[in-house]
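Q: Start with the shorter request: fold the first protein.
A: Done. Sequence, then structure:
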Amino acid sequence: MGVLALAALVLVSFFVEAVAGFGSMVIALTVGALFSPVDALLGLLVPVNLVLSVYLVARNRAHVDWRFLWRRVVPLMAVGVVIGTALTRVVNQGIAKPLFALFVMAVAASQLRQALGKASLTRPLHEGARVAGLLGAGVIHGIFATGGPLTVYVSARELADKHAFRATLSAVWVVMNALVMPRLVQDGAVTLHSLQTSALLLLPLGAGIVLGERVHAALDERKFRVAVAALLLVAGGVLLVGSLTAKAGAT
């Protein structure tokens, strides 16, 4: 995947996260995986995502729900990240891509149904569902550095204010990506060369932040979530077809 195409992908996907507090990695990986190996993309994009998340937390730290973050989210997701990191040693790309595509499509379809529904999601999940959701989010994050869809599903039930929602999710990504980075360095996905490319991607990231901050202030959140969920559903379908076609061609 060329640098210019990657820059365009960063601009669009990280603009989404600057608006809503989630979505950059799952969009970037879903689209980028059509053209490049997932591990290579992670090595380039996780450092950029870390910069964005640190910026959003620093700028909006007054809105972070620290109690929810440290008592309910981080402990469960951290355990999941450890499990997911271990699974990366046994799950190959040929299996990982279609599984990731199915995961994206399932969560996107659920979010689209909820966003189009009339009932608001104001009731927290039952404890068992919350634990399972956050553990699963951690596992996905350990493998793909993008446990966002499940984390969003749980957090949206407990963080009604859009400012608290975005700021707290950004803090989650800071912690989770800090846990993922050592594995990427050990696997050779993050190197001095990859960091040079990541540094170039800070330019489209900056543009995405500027645009995203403006849109966030005047956001019709329901319409935005419908658009993001629809985009993920289509992109996940394209990735699923592409990965299955490539797998069939290799056999």
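Q: Next, the second protein, separately.
A: Sequence, then structure:
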Amino acid sequence: MSASPRGSHKVGAAYSVLLEKELYGEVDPTVHKLVWPSTGNYGIGGAWVGCRMGCTSIVVLPELMSRERFEQIESYGGIVIKTPGSESNVKEIYDKTWELRKDPDVRVLNQFEVMGNYRFHYYVTGNTIIELAAQLAEQGIGTGKVTAYVSAMGSAGTIAAGDRLKQQWADHLIVGLEPIQCPTLFNNGYGAHDIQGIGDKHATWIHNVWNMDAIMCIDDIESKKGLQLLTEEAGWRAMIDDFGVPEADVQQMARIFGISGVCNLLGAIKTAKYYGLGRDDLIVTICTDAIDRYRSVMADLTATYGAMDAREAAARVEWIIQGQKLDWINEGTRANRTQWHNLKYYTWVEQQGKSIEELDAQKSQDWWRQHQEMVSKIDAKLLEYRAAQAVSG
């Protein structure tokens, strides 16, 4: 699945979150200033959606994100507040949003917490994947069934599509990804990494960890060097001339991948190897954004490691793409899922005001189904609102 309007698959999630808040009277665009905590894609989506609705949109994100992210947010009319650190430093974002909440006209639309983000990806992304699987089967690709869904977690909204897929196919596999440099669910991790958009050093409130079948970790250097391979001339030539990849496919990949998209691709390869999947097994992952966010990161990579020539490009195909190893993998045993769940305590109960009772409720899939079932009610409320607006207009 490739990126969505404005180059960010989080445009839809941002729209869904804001729409729900407005429908239920929690946000008035004519009064409230909207705060979008983000490490990039959600902030870009929030700036685009919020500003188009005439809202003041404030995006809080770490100062070490790519230069292009800040430029794009500001080009839509969003206000940027930079917090210390990199992708891994979401605690600092939360601290800033608590400070901003002191203004009674501020509304924080926290993607890591609000279930509108979960619902959008469960319903829209999940059902879109089911439709695409059927279309691919008609083209002779797969059987119409999605064997595995692979997604790195930032807010853990995107991985919610797996909940819908597992309802469609009971033996479906949901595989989450994290950076080796900050393996939070895998190893209670700390550290810093540069797979921008994922791995935010905490278990998010909206992540249904009890439904995840495995966590795998991917190297951020492999993800960045892999992106360089897909988006620079030497890499194109190696894939076309040395490995026989059709030129049209090479040029398409050059347009649709960003760092986290390459991470997802490597995770899909790792999943296929680990579970012994074959040609009829369809694995779905997401291209969350594209190279236009990362030209400055690629320039820094070249400055650090030197220019990628033909020999280096061929080596990267063998080392990064073909040579993905079966390390850094934990399956979703009951013990591991309990550990993943318990990690939520430190952020959400100790820091963000949730109760133990709310946290314990998430252990039951009934809790998640109740949120899924709200989709039809929200749709009906939206249609009612639009009908009223048409009459009054």
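Q: Describe the second briefly.
A: Strands lie at 33-37, 56-62, 79-83, 106-108, 146-152, 173-179, 214-218, 282-284, 329-331. Residues 1-6 have pLDDT under 50 and may be disordered.
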